[in-house]
Amino acid sequence: MLLCLAAALIFQAPPNAAPSGTPPVAQEAPLDLGDPTRAAVRWLRSTQDAVTGSYGASVETTALVLRAFAECPDHYRTVDGPFVKKGAEWLVAQQDATGAIHDAAASGAVLQQQTRAAAEALIALGDASFGAQLGKALGFLGSTDLAPSAALPKTDMSAVEATAFARAVLAAQKERGKWDGARGALQETAWSVVQLSAADKVLKKHAAPAPTPAAINALPTFTVADRSSAMTALEKGCDYLATQCKDGKWPGARPDAGLTAMVLGALQCRAVPRPEAQQKLIDAGLAWLASLQQPDGSIHDGKLANYTTSAAILALARSGDPKWNGVIAKARDFLIGLQADAGEGYSEGDLYYGGIGYGSTERPDLSNLQMALEALASSGLEPNAPTYKKALKFLERCQNRSESNDIAIKDGGSTIVSGNDGGSAYAPGDSKAGYTELEGGLKVPRSYGSMTYAMLKCMMFSGLGKDDPRLVAAVEWCTKNYTLDVNPGFDVARDAAAPYQGLFYYFHTMSQALSRLGLESLTDGAGKVHAWRQEVCGRLVSMQSKIDGSWINPNSPRWMEGNPILGSAYALLTLDAAMPR
């Protein structure tokens, strides 16, 4: 699902071949600081006082942590949740009549230092609602222009210098995502995030421009497929995936738990009895996934715990083997605990209330929520469970339907608001398909196919009936924009490849949603009736490799759909959901 499952290459070959007999010189890839800063942000967030909202009950510590949140590559703001908002509210509550922001016992130079730290945090957060408090703090300091710290990388640094600086900071880690020292773990970790984030800006400035997209070719024409031809395509796809693993792990050379879970779910779409060799791969793979379960119930191999746990539950549950029931139950409880709700300090008024994300960032999204809700349903979670009900608030804020969507998010000089086409974006106020600019500085996140079907599926998990106006609006968007040629909703004028992004994910969520809805045919915006099952299967049959039975997204490798293992897993899961009756 909208993620990169493959590990990044550390070194790449130089552009020019070395002379004969000369060992090739490894060229270091650009340093990626996303993972270490995200790990640190996750730890910092976990230390917040749930009652007061402060970090370390200290102005300077709270200010530095908030600055780390704001300046890290993910640029968190108060709208992102109580881990930022409550901290900022606590910080400004420590301001006295002179404008200084400080701990109760602070005086002299310490008072000046704490006020400066608080002002830097408020500037970094950029929340206009704290403008008055910031103005008073700057007035106390006697300056509206705070000079940057000399301990941060200069913007005119070279990429080599910025890389060396970042490596020195990383080398001081005591453990992943955590630093310690004279100022204590909280301040040392927060300051390290600020340093790494400054280095990251320099490195991005020096990054090579994105490659020019390859020529785009329309998908092949197709005819509708019956059950027999769809089954034949599915079996060929299973045979292909069976050749790409080692001992039930995919890919064979460097196994990845998330990818393995997706493939195991796909292979189990083949009817039993399956070929003996393939069944052995499935059994071995499921056992490996179960062996990765952590004490907290999550199932992963060190990354993307939320996503991988969901995929693992789906694979284990599909087997129907009762020996995995205990593993599934623990994993289910882990997923339930991830939801942004009162347990993490969220209330219904918070933008991301009810959502679930990757776990790599602190922002929930619809893609991960739909994966988690499907996994929870497969795990046996009762239909009326609170998790589903809480998710509905998040879904409302993803849907472009102003009657039920209350977002008004400041974004620079613009305000992000809901549209009214009934479709869905990726997250509240955020769309991978971009935005539609309106008059008056307003902009609307564009609805697009894969997320609208994901939302539709989640609405049904959340208990909405077919006559509910929110679900009706979503179905209307889907029928009006029905197509199997692209992932609809992307702006073709800006990027000809954009509508092909997430194409297999789109086919998959479409088939799951329409099947769950109970529709066997639908009428598109032009009034044409479609037998969607036969058409979806026909589309996939037309895209299957005639050489090895695999699938690949030919126009967009984004979200790893250029990988034939993941592309084939999606295709098999789609064929299973869309299989003609």
Produce a short descriptive summary.
By secondary structure, the protein is mainly α. It is built from 19 helices and 8 strands.
Report on this structure.
With 581 residues, this protein is mostly helical. It contains 19 helices and eight strands. The strands form three sheets. It has a four-stranded mixed β-sheet, with no helix packed on it. A two-stranded antiparallel ribbon has the order 1-2. Strands 7-8 form a two-stranded antiparallel sheet. Helix 13 (366-379) packs parallel to helix 15. The longest helix is centred in the middle third of the chain and has 22 residues, at 185-206. Mean pLDDT is 91; it is low at 1-27.
Q: Overall pLDDT, averaged?
A: 91
| Helix percent band | 40-55%
Tell me how many strands there are: 8
Q: How do the helices and strands follow one another from N- to C-terminus?
A: EEHHHHHHHHHHHHHHEEEEHHHEEHH
| Separate helix tally | 19
Can you tell me the overall shape? globular
User: Roughly what fraction of the amino acids lie in strands?
Assistant: under 5%
Oligomer state of the chains in this structure: single chain
Trace the largest sheet across and list its strands. 3-4-6-5
Evaluate the radius of gyration: 25 Å
Low-confidence stretches: 1-27
Terminus-to-terminus distance = 27 Å
What's the story with the biggest beta sheet? 4 strands, mixed
Query: Structural class from helices and strands?
Result: mainly alpha
